[in-house]
DNA sequence: TAATTGTTTGCAGTGAGTGCAAGTTTCTGC
DNA sequence: GCAGAAACTTGCACTCACTGCAAACAATTA
């Protein structure tokens, strides 16, 4: 990931990382509710005012989202091969992000924290909405649908929802691996989530 | 609804209603962002401190949700007829709430306001999450699934998502009626939202 | 090295939200 | 009807999130 650019560029990245890291560490230590911006700023050795130059809220810093992911996702959607169905594209995008987070060790550290804190989970949803707007726009265009079409919007939103559901389920039942839960969720979405009461779980799945 | 109880009880309801009403009116007049709790309290003729005895945030007062709706929805899920598929149940629940809001004239007053304001929309989502948890629990039991099952959680969440998407699409393209958008969304969910790029919109629909 | 541009910071201020202790109102038993 | 208990309201002092502004500072460019 582009570490080009001059000193200035690198310093900004460094500061941002330091703030995010401090925010996460403190949140894990004391619980997200009991961390103040002042502490985070102090730990990262910058002023409180500078904190707000980097993040709009405390929660945003703790979430520490990587903007790179959205960029890559949008690119992936725009350049999806013609034979690939939209939901499959999103599936691949999600798995990509997941793999990235796991390799960082971020998933275990942040995942638990976020799902355990209402405030953080809420904040995650809020930022997800903005992402989803952009993803929807990209997918709508990729599918050649008109601007107000229901399907692309629904595909993106439900894919996002699936991720959240998976995270939540993983919290309550950590025995099943996340990837497996995710695969099941996307299969259900693809085939239609509905079923008659009492019907078998997976009818006609590979 | 239950005007029993003594003077004290009635006065509390009155104060609560006055605060909610003032909050909504002021939000409509000046935009939700530009209303302060102080103004709301003043308009309802109580102190700021008292406002916070009734509502945890400003947004909560403006949203003024009717807790009755969730109760009815839960009941509806628990007593769903055996031949009714889960998604259908949720569909009916949603239409029920929608009809109720429309008859109150609440949908037009609050709906526009909420969808037009990021803050309010976000707040709505936050409260929706809590609702969805309860709905999921009810549906999981109704379907006879184990606690961590993916499908019921996904059904509830995606149904909620569908509502959101519909509200959002309705905002950007108000020509199509909400009920029509909603029906399309639920149909897509039932049949599987995915489709190959460039395929027809609805394959095999009635 | 000098001018330009971008970043950091302190300061002053608004507004949300909380805990506490003192006042006021409603309720209860007599 | 009245004294005391219980519930509600209020003002006050406080913490914290967050913003705008202008000055100081660091990096870039010519």
List the helices and strands and how they pair.
The structure is a homodimer of 206-residue chains.
Chain A: H1 7-30, H2 37-43, H3 48-54, H4 58-63, H5 67-78, H6 86-104, H7 106-116, H8 118-142, H9 150-172, H10 178-191
Helix pairs in contact in A: 1-2, 5-6, 5-8, 6-9, 6-10, 7-8, 8-9, 9-10
The structure holds a DNA duplex (30 and 30 nucleotides).
What can you tell me about this protein's structure?
The structure is a homodimer of 206-residue chains. By secondary structure, chain A is an all-alpha fold. Helix content of chain A is 72%, strand content 0%. Chain A is built from 10 helices and no strands. Chain A has helices spanning 7-30, 37-43, 48-54, 58-63, 67-78, 86-104, 106-116, 118-142, 150-172, 178-191. In chain A, helix 6 packs parallel to helix 9. Chain A is globular and about 55 Å long. The model of chain A is unreliable at 198-206 (pLDDT under 50). The interface between A and B is large, with 51 and 51 residues. Chain A binds a DNA duplex (30 and 30 nucleotides) through helix 1 and helix 3.
Total count of helical runs of at least 4 residues of chain A = 10
Terminal-residue CA separation of chain A: 37 Å
Question: Helix fraction of chain A?
Answer: over 70%
| Backbone structural class of chain A | mainly alpha
Secondary-structure element order of chain A, as H and E?
A: HHHHHHHHHH
Average pLDDT metric of chain A: 87
Q: Measured on Cα atoms, how large is the radius of gyration of chain A?
A: 19 Å
Largest interface here, residues on each chain? A-B, 51 and 51 residues
Q: Stretches of chain A where pLDDT falls below 50 for ≥5 residues? A: 198-206
- Taken from the alpha-carbon principal axes, the silhouette of chain A is globular
Number of strands of chain A: 0
| Major pleated sheet of chain A | none
What oligomeric assembly is this protein in? homodimer
Strand content of chain A: under 5%
């Amino acid at each position: 990931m582009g570490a080009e650019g001059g000193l200035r560029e690198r310093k900004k990245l460094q500061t941002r990382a330091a703030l995010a890291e401090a925010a996460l560490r403190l949140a894990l230590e004391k619980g997200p509710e009991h961390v103040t911006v002042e502490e985070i700023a102090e730990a990262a050795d910058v002023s409180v005012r500078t904190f707000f130059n980097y993040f709009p809220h405390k929660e945003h810093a703790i979430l520490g989202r990587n903007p790179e992911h959205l960029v890559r996702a949008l690119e992936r959607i725009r350049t999806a091969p013609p034979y690939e169905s939209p939901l499959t594209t999103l599936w691949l995008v999600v798995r990509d992000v997941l793999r990235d987070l796991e390799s960082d060790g971020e998933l275990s550290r942040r995942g638990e924290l976020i799902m355990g804190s209402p405030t953080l989970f809420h904040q995650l949803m809020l930022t997800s909405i903005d992402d989803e707007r952009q993803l929807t726009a990209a997918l709508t265009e990729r599918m050649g649908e008109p601007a107000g079409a229901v399907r692309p919007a629904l595909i993106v939103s439900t894919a996002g929802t699936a991720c959240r559901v998976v995270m939540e389920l993983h919290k309550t039942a950590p025995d099943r691996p996340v990837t497996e839960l995710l695969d099941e969720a996307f299969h259900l979405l693809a085939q239609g989530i509905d079923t008659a009461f009492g019907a078998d779980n997976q009818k006609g799945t590979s």
